[in-house]
Design brief:
The protein is of the alpha/beta class and 327 residues long. A hairpin with a 2-residue loop joins β4 and β5. The relative contact order is 0.13. InterPro entries: Thioredoxin-like_sf, Thioredoxin_domain, TPR-like_helical_dom_sf.
Length: 327
């Protein structure tokens, strides 16, 4: 592994990641607050954690918002990954040694497939950085500590020079105490065991089981926001699973009148962070079709709205565009 020049030209588009995280966070806000005993993130004056476990629901607050104050290094890992077990301890040790110059966010790819795909991770371990809401890849694979240290030094320097972000000094012992306290906080009891089972299935990669469980919840509670979002995410992941992106895009280009081909590309665009492209393609498909084909495209567009979140400006704009072509 060679140290990476900290240019933002290779930055990852986090717009879809941010939107999906915001929507999921809103749906789970009450449950998360009960679990942590906090009303809005970390309490003022509380010790900053140097190493944090992050999931899709907490990505907006724990990574994007935090990256405006300190560089956030993301470690994509999995329990079965042997190279991860070599790299992760190095990153954790350096997070403590650097004492607040960066924060390490650990993301289990098995439990957070949406983030895994939206970052375009090709293999693990994979290490990214987020500075001022912008993400860039650092390196992939296990690496010796001196080279990891060199990359981190470049990252910290780039964060200060380009964005004026320097973090703040943190006592490693206080940070570890905060981490242990957070890990020991009792989880809030699920209000709906079927919904909890659906979440567990989604986190475990059982997309078929998650879809059925979310549908069961919605059969009893049609307005359940959390279940709607979970179902939309699970169905999207199931549709793109194993897809040959090059073939999907070629098919859509060669058959512009094929609704199924256009829907497949829209799914890939959304997962890849190209939200406007996905919405624009489906609005155009609705506009030039009729009958069952039009309804199919319209329903898919509404499903993707659920993934991104109803309050997102791009969803609001696309809803307006959809209304204009329908009426």
């Amino acid at each position: 592994m060679q140290p990476r020049n900290m240019s933002m030209s290779g930055a990852v588009d986090l717009s879809a990641v941010k939107a999906a995280a915001e929507a999921k966070q809103k749906a789970e806000q009450a449950r998360a607050q009960r679990a942590t005993g906090q009303a809005g993130g970390q309490q003022a004056g509380a010790p900053v954690q140097l190493v944090i476990d992050v999931d899709e629901a907490g990505f907006e607050q724990e990574v994007l918002q935090r990256s405006t104050e300190v560089p956030v290094v993301i470690d994509f890992w999995a329990d079965w990954c042997q190279p991860c077990k070599q790299l992760s301890p190095i990153l954790e040790r350096l997070a403590e040694e650097y004492a607040g110059k960066f924060v390490l966010a650990k993301i289990d790819v098995d439990s957070n497939q949406m983030l895994f795909q939206q970052f375009g991770v090709q293999g693990i371990p994979a290490v990214f950085a987020v500075i001022a809401g912008q993400a860039l890849p650092l390196f992939q694979g296990a690496a010796p500590e001196p080279q990891v240290r060199q990359v981190l030094d470049q990252l910290i320097q780039a964060a200060e020079q380009r964005f004026g972000i320097v973090g703040r000094p943190v006592d490693p012992q206080e940070a570890e105490a905060a981490r242990q306290a957070a890990a020991q906080a009792p989880p809030a009891p699920p209000a709906n065991p079927t919904l909890a089972a659906a979440h567990a299935a989604l986190d475990g990669g059982d997309l078929g089981g998650a879809i059925q469980a979310y549908r069961n919840v919605l059969a009893d509670e049609p307005a359940n926001v959390e279940a709607k979002l979970g179902l939309a995410q699970a169905e999207l992941l199931q549709r793109v699973q194993g897809a040959d992106a090059e073939r999907v895009r070629k098919d859509a280009a060669e058959r512009p009148g094929d609704v199924a081909a256009q829907l497949a590309v829209a799914d890939l665009d959304l997962v890849g962070g190209h939200v406007e492209d996905a919405f624009g393609r489906l609005v155009a498909t609705v506009q030039r079709t009729a009958g069952e084909d039009r309804d199919t495209a319209r329903v898919r567009l509404l499903e993707l709205f659920e993934v991104v979140g109803p309050d997102d400006p791009r969803v609001i704009a696309a809803r307006g565009a959809l209304a204009r072509v329908l009426f």
